[in-house]
Amino acid sequence: MLSTVLNRWFFALLGGAAGFALWQLHAIGVRAVDPHLTTAASGFVLVFAWAFYAMAGPLRIREALGRALPLAALTGGLMLLMSMRWPLTIDIFETPGHLLAMLAVAIIPVPFLLAEMGVGSDNGAGERAGGSLGRWNAYPALFGIVWGITTRVLIALFFTLAVWLVVALSAFLLDVVGVTLIDRLLMRGWAAPVISGLAFGLAVAVVNEMVGTLPARVIHWLLRLLLPVVTLVSLVFAGALLIWGVERNFGGISLAFTMLAMAAAGIVLVTVALDADDAHASRSLLIRGSARVMAVLIAVLAGLALWAVGIRIADQGLMPNRLFVLFLAIIGLIYGLAYTAGLLRGRGFAGWIRAANPWLALLTLLAAVLWQTPLLNAESWSAQDQAQRIIDGRKPASTFSRRVVEKLGIAGAQASQRVLAHARETGNSALEAEIQNQLNAGYLPQNAYAPVEISEEAMRQKLVEQMPIIPALPAETRAGLIDRIPGWFLENHVEACARRLPSGKPACLMLVADLLPEIPGDEIIVLAEHSRGLESYAIYAAGDSYLTASLLNNRGAFASRDELLRNLVDWSEAAPPLVPAPVMQLGEGSSGLFFVP
């Protein structure tokens, strides 16, 4: 009993420590001298916690720690290598493919590591099968391990969500009687990740104690029911495409990614239908027949996705998202061809798929690793291609916009310099002016990152010195207004004020006006565009403290990024007028009613 309690405490505290570490690394990330190291460290902590929790059930704690550490080091190292493509590491997540590649490197090796340690699949939950070592590619073991981990993680996530539901309800009830203890706790930045880590770790410890009773195969049986539906939809889509012709609304990233998602669903469903061995495979003729049809459709869907993204690349050129979908389509096509080859074996179809799956998973892992190395530098390839298209006259220089350059990171900046040099050599003044405008506006990534002092006081002082405030106010008054900005906004605001709009003005602005006549004093509107997006909010007095509120347009909707950016550019040049809102109210005071169309 004591060992069980200590085990639960260890798992919970490890989760809480991981949550706190992630919060701390995030808090210093942008302010760090080298933010690339903090990004890699965050990846290390996250993957270490995931790998430990995934392996600590079937393995002893020491064994799980010993295998989680090198996997976390590999993932963190690859993140560091890939993050060097941008001066701002947050840009690494601009392309979803980069995150998916990281997840693949973190997740795929775990079942192989467990299988190599002799973890079996007697009950489908992936528990340890004796003390001897096993084979890393033993398919029944791998199958049971994967679904055992899936079951444990889903239950742990459900428990974590349940904990947050209890926290939210408790906070609401205590607020009613004037007790704000939970609210004050949650206002601290570290509270959410620490609570989540504690809850998840505790849940994993408890689930591991019940490993022999987990109904992992229930998930298989439920998923099998979806296979005929997915097969039918895929078949109708492929048939309709042949009837309409591929020219009709064909060619694009969204369509290609959707087809690949359906192909991925087909791979999963065919795998669960065939299960770990013939004894557990589906006996339904409909499901087994659907598996055979879907095996061919996987190749068809992947081939069509390859065609669709090829059309977009031929028309618009390379970009990281297009390259990622291209690589996904190639991997999907390999899966589909391997599955289709299994059909030629007749009765050996299921055995062929089971034998092929481990090798196909390793192929996917290899592709994910290469994607994060200079060997497959999507940003560099894309920047070179886009620059060449502009130099050749196939694309106008305006397409090499601010967002495109920022997505391409350092390679994008180098490509801009290459285009600029070409324009000067050839005397193309229009092209030179277009690129030079971007340089002057601070559009290139190397101008976007400005190291910031680590202290909150230093950041507030920077904003006092750099943030434009309308109307112009004395330094002491400016400092008082800057003090109202919540601490979690400061990093982004300092970065925004270091950037420049096309006019050369800072990409940040504070406007002060009496927008709520019934509340004494002025309210504040803040607009700030940084590498992560555009932040906009209002600050108003609530008793002795200040609260923030979202900004709405005069249609009652949240203002769009384009609207906010247009206001930031215009209001930086000239202060906007203060005019009454076009709204009347029925009734007086707080009991009145009004609506915004």
What's the structural blueprint in terms of helices and strands?
Elements: H1 2-29, H2 35-55, H3 61-83, H4 96-107, H5 109-116, H6 139-176, H7 181-186, H8 191-209, H9 216-224, H10 227-244, H11 253-274, H12 285-316, H13 320-343, H14 349-371, H15 378-392, H16 402-426, H17 429-440, H18 456-466, E1 469-470, H19 475-482, H20 490-498, E2 508-513, E3 523-530, E4 533-542, E5 545-549, H21 561-573
Parallel strand pairs: 1-2
Antiparallel strand pairs: 2-3, 3-4, 4-5
List keywords for this structure.
mainly alpha; globular; five-stranded mixed β-sheet; 4 domains; 597 residues; single chain
What does this structure look like?
Helix content is 63%, strand content 5%. The protein contains 21 helices and five strands. It has a five-stranded mixed β-sheet with strand order 1-2-3-4-5. β3 and β4 form a beta hairpin.
Number of helix segments?
21
N- to C-terminal separation?
63 Å
**What number of domains?**
4
Shape annotation: globular
Cα-based radius of gyration, to the nearest Å: 28 Å
Report the average pLDDT across residues. 82
**What amount of the residues lies in strands?**
5-15%
The main β sheet shows up as: 5 strands, mixed
> How helix-rich are the residues, as a percent range?
55-70%
The spatial strand order of the largest sheet comes to 1-2-3-4-5
Structural class: mainly alpha
Report the oligomer: single chain
Outline the low-pLDDT stretches.
441-453
Strand-and-helix sequence, N→C? HHHHHHHHHHHHHHHHHHEHHEEEEH
The count of strands amounts to 5
